[in-house]
Amino acid sequence: MAQQKTRGLKRTLVGTVVSAKMDKTAVVRVDRRFRHPIYGKFIQRRKKYMAHDPSNQCGVGDKVLIEESRPLSRRKRWRIKEVVEKAV
Fold it and tell me: What is the DSSP string of 35-49?
């Protein structure tokens, strides 16, 4: 009986689509808040990820869940798993 190896859990992030002009690609901005280790003040950091969107379902302003994947192109290493909330 062949034993199936399971891969570890893939990282997931929730962010907002800031650009959907490319074919099958969306740019997702992920905001994170954390407490400064010394001063205790809350700091906001933003990062943009290129995510694969095979059906071009995302629009600007949508809240999406992205999942880590294998490299799909030079800058794309994430896939859009689901659209959490559509923009109005």
Answer: E-TTT--EEEEEEEE
